[in-house]
Design a protein that fits this description.
Its cofactor is [4Fe-4S] cluster. GO terms for molecular function: 4 iron, 4 sulfur cluster binding; DNA-directed RNA polymerase activity; metal ion binding; single-stranded DNA binding. InterPro entries: DNA_primase_C (IPR058560), DNA_primase_lsu_euk (IPR016558), DNA_primase_lsu_euk/arc (IPR007238). One of its GO terms (cellular component) is alpha DNA polymerase:primase complex. The chain is built from 25 helices and four strands. It is mostly helical. It has three domains: 175 residues, Transcription Elongation Factor S-II, Chain A (Up-down Bundle); 79 residues, Transcription Elongation Factor S-II, Chain A (Up-down Bundle), CATH 1.20.930; 195 residues, no CATH class. Strands 1-2-4-3 form a four-stranded antiparallel β-sheet. Strand 3 and strand 4 form a beta hairpin. The radius of gyration is 27 Å and the shape is elongated. It starts with a helix and ends with a helix.
Length: 505
């Protein structure tokens, strides 16, 4: 047994200690040595990387998980923006603060570059296991590359392109450009006007005269061919330099897709490592970062305003997500909630700032209207509510349930009100609530229903929030705009409500 354990531990090492050298292209262990600095300078000759060389050094398990979580937050926000059909400029406004906080590449700090490099390869391990996860990861990472590329200066962009050595990335001669000048200008004139905001004809002509063009096979930029944004001649596409990002992104996407398939073939070799597999499973499960949303912020927006009586006020209930509204309506109607709904609503109210004394008053008053006496309430329910606040039993400070936890619970049966309405309600009931209760237009309702049909319930909830609160650009971005927690919905809604009240006064 000892020998087997010894072999397993030895097998976990990612480099040959006996060599004692730093030769080869891999990321080193320990402090920032000169060899390690040189390696990262080669990997990040620009502020971006294609991640072509896998890391072979050692990092701590804490770094392994935390770095992956930070990158996952960014990718999930990007994926949510894609699903919500956000234009590129609005997506950049949403994601840029998150990038600066979690994955900044604006400095030459070695640890920041190391975090970016390792986190990419860690998430490759997480999302290589199925075609759906691979497609999402490639789409999100490619979009991240585009966003970062557009944030670079023109000098840094040119420097990055030179490091790639991509095939077919060759500029045409001035003579060839002169021969095709009429066709080239007619093709890109619209893009110069709408993408670069060059509304004046003289400005567009001057820009065209200085612009360089790349000649490459048309299949490398099929998306631009379909939109008639490049000139085609004899099977070759003439791509202006300001649109070279499309070719770069396609090459990166193709490279990453191939790498993910190879990674999936090597995943079985990790089966003996009982440290990494639980972390990888936790990160990749459902491609959902709802567990990683910081919950310490919950309750700040209300600041003691939620009591046993004020919780029924229109001002407070206006900020409730649909799941909380459903449980409150059920409580008002039948004056009782079954166990799952009691748990879900208790933790939600606790998260928005209701104290334990107010919670006791709130539940006892609600149940009393249904004929439950104070004696019966104290005997059958009081202990459970106090336990949820950490005052009984093991005295655990339970957190409010996030969307992932709610969706993992059993679906509600007749007479139950817990769960997620976007998953549990039929189309007619959900349509009626969205159109009449939340005043959404038919187009908006159809957009939400499309996400519900694709089982993207948190995306549907995020869309509803944006449609009822003036759009995503109206939200102060602290961590994520994607709603993956009922209390996050309430916090942001209450903040905007207070902001409107302050402006009115």
């Amino acid at each position: 047994m000892f020998r087997q354990s010894k072999r397993r531990v030895a097998g976990r090492r990612n480099f040959d200690e006996r060599s004692g050298s730093s030769s080869g292209n891999f990321i080193l262990n320990g402090t920032a040595s000169e060899e390690e600095k040189k390696l990262y300078e080669s990997l990040y000759q620009s502020r971006l990387s294609f991640y072509t060389i896998p890391p072979k050094g050692e990092i701590t398990l804490e770094q392994f998980e935390l770095w992956a979580i930070d990158r996952l937050k960014v990718l999930l926000e990007i994926e949510s923006c894609i699903q919500r059909n956000k234009p590129a400029r609005e997506m950049e406004l949403i994601v840029k603060p998150l990038l600066q906080k979690l994955l900044p590449l604006t400095t030459d700090d070695l640890e920041i570059r190391k975090k970016d490099y390792y986190s990419h390869f860690i998430l490759r391990l997480c999302f290589c296991r199925s075609k759906e996860l691979r497609d999402k990861f490639v789409r999100s990472e490619t979009t991240l590359l585009k966003l970062r590329f557009n944030m670079l200066t023109s000098q840094d962009q040119a420097k990055f392109v030179k490091t790639l050595n991509l095939p077919f990335l060759q500029f045409i001669s001035d003579e060839e450009k002169e021969q095709l000048s009429t066709e080239l200008y007619q093709t890109i004139s619209g893009a110069l006007q709408f993408q670069l905001n060059l509304t004046d004809e003289n400005q567009r002509r001057q820009y065209f005269n200085q612009e360089k063009f790349i000649k490459l096979p048309f299949e490398s930029v099929v998306d631009l061919v379909g939109n008639r944004q490049v000139f085609i001649k004899k099977g070759s596409a003439y791509l202006p330099q300001f649109q070279q990002l499309n070719h770069i992104a396609n090459e990166f996407s193709s490279m990453l897709s191939t790498a993910l398939l190879k990674t999936s073939q090597n995943i079985p070799r990790l089966n003996e490592d009982d440290r990494l597999l639980p972390i990888l499973h936790h990160l990749s499960s459902g491609y959902d970062a709802s567990n990683f949303v910081l919950q310490d912020q919950f309750g700040n927006a209300s600041q003691g305003e939620v009591t046993a009586t004020s919780v029924y006020s229109a001002k407070i209930e206006e900020n409730f997500p649909l799941c909380a509204k459903n449980m409150m309506n059920g409580l008002k109607t039948v004056h009782h909630l079954r166990y799952q709904a009691r748990q879900q609503l208790t933790f939600f109210l606790k998260g928005i700032g209701m104290s334990v004394d107010d919670a006791m008053q709130f539940w006892s008053d609600a149940f009393a209207k249904g004929g439950i006496t104070t004696e019966k309430f104290n005997k059958e329910y009081k202990y459970n509510f106090r336990h949820n606040y950490g005052l009984e039993g093991n005295r655990i400070n339970y957190k409010p349930w996030d969307c992932r936890t709610i969706l993992s619970k059993p679906r509600p049966s007749r007479g139950e009100f817990h769960g997620c309405p976007y998953r549990d309600w039929n189309v007619d009931k959900l349509t009626l609530e969205l159109s009449q209760g939340m005043k959404l237009t038919q187009t908006q309702v159809n957009s939400v229903l499309d996400n519900v049909e694709r089982t993207e319930y948190t995306v549907a909830c995020t869309k509803v929030f944006e449609m009822t609160h003036g759009g995503s650009t109206n939200v102060e971005i602290n961590d994520q705009t994607h709603i993956s927690h009922p209390n996050l919905y309430y916090e942001r809604s209450r903040q905007l409500q207070k902001k409107a009240e302050g402006a009115a006064t």
